[in-house]
Amino acid sequence: MKKMKNTLLLFSLIILVSVSSCQDLSEINENPNNVSETHPQLLLTNISENAFEVEGTGAMYASRMLVQTDGENSGQYYSWDRASFNDYNMLGEVTKMMEEAERIESDAYIALAKFFRAYYFYNLTLTFGDVPYSEALQGESNQIFTPKYDAQKDVFIGILSELEEANNLLEGNNDVIYGDIIYGGNALNWQKLINSFRLKVLISLSEKENDTELDIKNTFASIVNNNPIMQSNNDSGLLVFLDQDGSRYSEFNSSSYGSGMYMSSTFIKRLQDRQDPRLFIFCGRTKNAKEAGLAIDDFSAYEGGDPLAPYAEVNDKAAQGDVSKVNLRYSTDPTTEPHAILSYSELEFILAEASVRNWISSIAETHYNNAVKASFNFYNTHAKGFESYVESSAAEAYLNGNLVSFNNAITMEQKLELILTQKYFTSFLQSGWRMYFDHLRTGYPNFVYNGNSTPPTRWVYPTSEYQQNTQNVSEAIKSQFGEGNDLIRELTWWLK
Description:
mainly alpha
């Protein structure tokens, strides 16, 4: 009996070994932390958080909002050189989201992937000029590890095409978009954002208005007339911050706010000249003003540092207590105002500019007033403790000011200056480099600078491209600027 049991046990072991040897070892050894498939919602959350977060203070130095007192800031003195291709890392995640969206056949997630592709490529091409686009991100799929550079015009055509496709995919789409931290899964709100972003891309190409292939004017009007766009602050694309690890305001506890970073005198003066109450929200009173008991709403309690002066000179003025810092709420409140990738206020400024340029038939003044009121309402809603300064009645009074009223603008240039200046004010710790690119495109608002140190028009390509994609980056430089002219003041296609 015992011998029979041993025989049966040996036979069972032989069968088990045989079955095991036939099983794919890759299935047995699959790492649960390195899965080959996932739902796109798991990628969407991180992609959205990265795209919508505050982009830091670099653009604010370049746009004459901030000055540095403990060293020379390259942005303030227009002496930068290289930028990175880090956005391609996020585009890698977007590519994965697209693949997973296509796998589960979800038009909504495909549309959002197209939007984020457009968003990141838009930033990349404005930063550098020609960039890898058509062959980019194909290392895994097609073994293209040294992608060619596409002409900037072709990149813009691709961006606009992808945004149009995204809109079409969301037309009538009622799917709930899980993992959505921006709109809570509402596809229509994403469609409004996407179409509004199309208008943003088109207005940035105002220098190319007469390009028949792009047909900017008619395309812009068609979107306004036929597609859903933002209608109120409730439609703004906002990242709302939470007081929990990993979700706090992007500038919360940033050490730079407590060290050598101060407000620029040119920015403060523009707000003072217009009696703009948003000054109290953006800036802190000077040390001397606080000690003298000046109220928060006393415009004389604020003063900035000269962005053209040597930093040591501004440091002396700051040490004497005569320079304002950024309002502390930005670095001490973990849930201060949300950050907009594109706000309703910005859209109304875009529409106002388009109206002045005769791209659309609506009234520029109406859009301009809507934009300013929306900005006041945004801070009335989110600037804790400062609500009373930006109530609707304050916005109405402000719009009647001599330097603010649209009725005081007669010529097209005067109207553009009004629109772009007000749009600039709404850019404080919002929308990244938009205000700087608007200045490059229109000249408004005017940025002061020393001698020939004009505002740079681009950044130098990353060192990694010279090392790993030498031929393609060299050809891109030569075709745009002439051989060896990878310089920060070369004009790229969109500015010519």
